[in-house]
User: What shape does this take?
Amino acid sequence: MPKLKPCILAVDDDVHILSLLRHTLEMEGYQVITADSGEAAVTAFERTLLDLVLLDIMLPGLDGYAVCRRIRSSSQVPIIMVTAMGSDEEMVRGLDAGADDYVTKPFSVEKLLARVRAVLRRSQAALPMSSCDVFRNGSLEIDFARRGATVAGKEIRLTPTEFHLLRELVFNIGKVLTYSHLLHKIWGPEYQDERQYLHVFVRSLRTKLELRHQGHGTVESISGVGYRFKV
Assistant: This one.
């Protein structure tokens, strides 16, 4: 049987952007479903088996954050936020809602397609087997087989990308991992120069791990170089 084309849900209330997304993605061989509101996006998600969601934040009715949370309540389908609000705070808010990635408007078609390819590649790639099933440090517990983490017994909701980042840091405890290493290892060559992008993801990860801080290890910044997991 021929391999089915990845199915992408594109959500935006601007008909011109929605038309551009459909045309661009279909030209690249993807199946495309569109929605122009939050409610329509949720309905499309519930009716269709999706491989990726491109989700605008400013939508009539349910906004992108609410839609993202609704999807995340039952699915780990990759979500890329497409937003005109490019502040770190807004980006962290999107990651906290469950987004895997974000693209700021205005965006180039080439950059958007590169992000789509990278996110689909990450979602389809299996994590290599670990030498241990569970990592524990203080109140932090990471279950690599289940791809989950808890702090003081409370489940911490991590996106697949955040979990990959945490895993790479924990598997290299005490080692300083450069910005370049982390960007290439977790996201791929398309993100090689996105240092600020990495900072946003680390900030989101720290916030989730330290909301109920009980003396466990944390992600330490090494100024101008990178990050390390310190216990």
Notes: The chain has a mean pLDDT of 86.
